[in-house]
């Protein structure tokens, strides 16, 4: 809140406030001490006026502080009232929501009960239809019951109709089992014949392949025998040639040795060369 603007009163306003009139005098005609006194009096009056204004402003500030405090209290009271009202509205909304939820649950429960009642009604109608159908079937099967009782009376082997039906049921089951076993045996026999046929075909194919391989191996054996004869002949030729070459080499070495000995003997050169070093002997000759 803005404070009132403070303005200093003029000398005329001060005299008017005191309700006195001061005769206008020419300042030039006054003494200096008189002028000082006048100035001091004016200053004192201004200070008193300022003090009055300060007190008045302080009172106004106190009243404003009290007013602010009252306003703050009222604002707090208003906030509390708003909070209580919001809490009341929330409680009302929660009660309304719970009531709506209960009403919705009741509606769902009522709908479920109606659906269950309709289902039970349909189930009852279906059961009534089944009872009627079974009653018709029982009436249609009554001659067979009379026939079975007549058969039981003529046979005299069983105590009652259920025992006779159990016996014949076992016979039917055994017959069906034997039929299934015979069918399974026929199927296994067919599978065995098929496996035998495949084995024969595979064996025949393997026998033909083996004969072809044997013929190819026999051909390769004959070719290998021819190669062996050729290589044996070649090896014999190589051995004879090697023998001739060895004899010729020995003759050459002997001739070189003789030349070496003759040369060294005629020239009287010491024979420090080895007897087997034919190349050194040739170099010396």
From TrEMBL:
UniProt xrefs under Pfam families: DUF4200
Top-level taxon: Eukaryota
Keywords: Coiled coil
InterPro entries named among the record's database cross-references: CFAP_domain-containing, DUF4200
Region (Disordered), start-end ranges: 1-28
Any single GO CC term annotated in Swiss-Prot or TrEMBL for this entry: cytoskeleton
Coiled-coil features, chain-numbered ranges: 36-74, 110-137
Domain DUF4200 residues, every copy: 38-152
Official protein name in the record: CCD42 protein
Organism: Falcunculus frontatus (Eastern shriketit)
């Amino acid at each position: 809140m803005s404070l009132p603007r403070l303005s200093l009163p003029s000398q005329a306003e001060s005299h008017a406030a005191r309700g006195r009139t001061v005769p206008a005098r020419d300042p030039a005609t006054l003494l200096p001490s008189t002028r000082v006194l006048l100035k001091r009096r004016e200053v004192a009056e201004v200070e008193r006026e300022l003090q009055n204004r300060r007190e008045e402003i302080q009172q106004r500030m106190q009243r404003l502080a009290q007013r602010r405090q009252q306003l703050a209290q009222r604002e707090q009271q208003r906030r509390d009232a708003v909070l209580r009202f919001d809490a009341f509205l929330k409680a009302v909304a929660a009660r309304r929501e719970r009531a709506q939820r209960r009403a919705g649950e009741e509606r769902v429960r009522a709908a479920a009960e109606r659906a269950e009642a309709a289902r039970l009604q349909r189930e009852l109608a279906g059961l009534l239809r089944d009872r009627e159908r079974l009653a018709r079937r029982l009436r249609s099967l009554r001659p067979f019951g009379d026939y079975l009782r007549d058969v039981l009376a003529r046979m005299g082997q069983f105590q009652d109709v259920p025992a006779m039906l159990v016996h014949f049921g076992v016979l039917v089951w055994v017959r069906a089992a034997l039929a299934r076993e015979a069918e399974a045996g026929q199927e296994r026999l067919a599978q065995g014949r098929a496996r035998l046929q495949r084995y024969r075909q595979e064996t025949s194919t393997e026998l033909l392949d083996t004969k072809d391989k044997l013929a190819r191996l026999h051909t390769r054996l004959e070719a290998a025998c021819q190669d062996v004869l050729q290589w044996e002949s070649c090896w014999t030729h190589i051995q004879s040639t090697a023998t001739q070459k060895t004899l010729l080499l020995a003759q050459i070495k002997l001739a070189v040795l003789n030349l070496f000995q003759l040369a060294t003997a005629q020239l009287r050169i010491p024979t420090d060369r080895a007897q087997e070093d034919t190349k050194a002997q040739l170099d010396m000759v």
